[in-house]
Amino acid sequence: LTEVDPIDFGIVAAISHGTNVATLAIDAATGALAASTTGTPAVFASIDPTTKSQALITVEDGADGATLNFTINNVVNPIFGGNAFLLTGWETNWNGGAVAARTAGTPFQYTFSAAFAAGVNELRIGAEIRTQTAVALYADGIYVGSFDVVASY
């Protein structure tokens, strides 16, 4: 396994609200960003998407047709200055196929293909960040979170 790209939402602005929630999702297949809200004033805005990317992990040297087991776990919400976004809404894309919704901590499987890209299979991971209702202000800064991808076969 090789992490080629980490998940990155780019530079964003967020406003939280005591009741409403704003969400910014990154698509596992395309890397496209999509913002939504349950109501104003909660909002996400993409300021500079230059660095945005879905996570990309390559898988090499597998046996053709082997079942690979994956789990997304040890999720740490992106945080800066005591305020955090909720990292959730997981989805995956295997070798350019259909996007599938995932739940952190729940295993999922894909089949290794020696014919795909000369045996370099691709697992793309998308997710979403959400504002939390308890946060009054998301200060300017670099919000850092993480997650593990555990693989076995």
What does this structure look like?
With 153 residues, the protein is an all-beta fold. 0% of the residues lie in helices and 53% in strands. It has no helices and 13 strands. The strands form 3 sheets. Strands 1, 3, 4, 6, 9, 10 and 12 form a 7-stranded antiparallel β-sheet that branches. Strands 7, 8, 11 and 13 form a 4-stranded antiparallel β-sheet that branches. A hairpin with a 2-residue loop joins strand 7 and strand 8. The model has no long low-confidence stretch (mean pLDDT 96).
Task: Give a concise summary.
The chain is an all-beta fold and 153 residues long.
Derived from helix and strand composition plus strand pairing, the structural class reads mainly beta
* Helix segment tally: 0
Mean pLDDT: 96
What fraction strand?
over 45%
Q: In one word, what is the shape?
A: elongated
Count of strand segments: 13
Distance between the termini: 12 Å
Radius of gyration: 17 Å
- Give the topology string: H per helix, E per strand: EEEEEEEEEEEEE
Which percent bin holds the helix content? under 10%
Please outline the helices and strands.
Blueprint: E1 2-5, E2 11-15, E3 22-26, E4 33-37, E5 43-48, E6 55-59, E7 67-80, E8 83-84, E9 86-94, E10 99-101, E11 108-111, E12 121-130, E13 144-152
Antiparallel strand pairs: 1-6, 2-5, 3-4, 3-12, 6-12, 7-8, 7-11, 7-13, 9-10, 9-12
